[in-house]
Amino acid sequence: AQTVTQSQPEMSVQEAETVTLSCTYDTSENNYYLFWYKQPPSRQMILVIRQEAYKQQNATENRFSVNFQKAAKSFSLKISDSQLGDTAMYFCAWGTQGGSEKLVFGKGTKLTVNP
Amino acid sequence: KAGVTQTPRYLIKTRGQQVTLSCSPISGHRSVSWYQQTPGQGLQFLFEYFSETQRNKGNFPGRFSGRQFSNSRSEMNVSTLELGDSALYLCASTPRPGYTGELFFGEGSRLTVL
User: Could you report the per-residue pLDDT of A13-22, keeping only the tens digit for each?
Assistant: First the structure.
């Protein structure tokens, strides 16, 4: 069975600094997606960044980038120039490329950006 | 374009009762999935629907059921509520199964069982 592990339950960072959130996963499949979702205190989950496993290039979305190490099954999220609005729960998730909407989520990392 | 709408947003029930939660997907989205979020277990997949058919089901007891209507709206039902069913229930939609893998979530329905 697929599992996703986030080893940092809580993290904090100063505004404008850089922070990295860790995620490891376990799967025997070769074709899959990895995601980072953000859940602000208002609770609506939104996609931060997505990585397709067959792509070697790390995904980047503005201040957000990932370090995808397929062999090590590691998928970390780097947030640069942290902003107060980045304060949220961050969930790492795994999904198969086979057409199912089932995602396997990690337990989450609560990130606080301090002014 | 309106997002995923879930109703009710908050509800309180007592043990043994049943509850029905509703989800309206983004217009044009035909695939709907449900997740349960609790502090202890995190986010767990409940089930997914496409074209009124359940395509996949998570590891939950038969008290948890769902359905999808012809307009893609979905409902989930929990019968004989237990204290452990207290959770945030999230609905997500996509245009079709496997659409880039990205899910669009609603704000959730917060269920408290007393």
Answer: 999 999 999 9
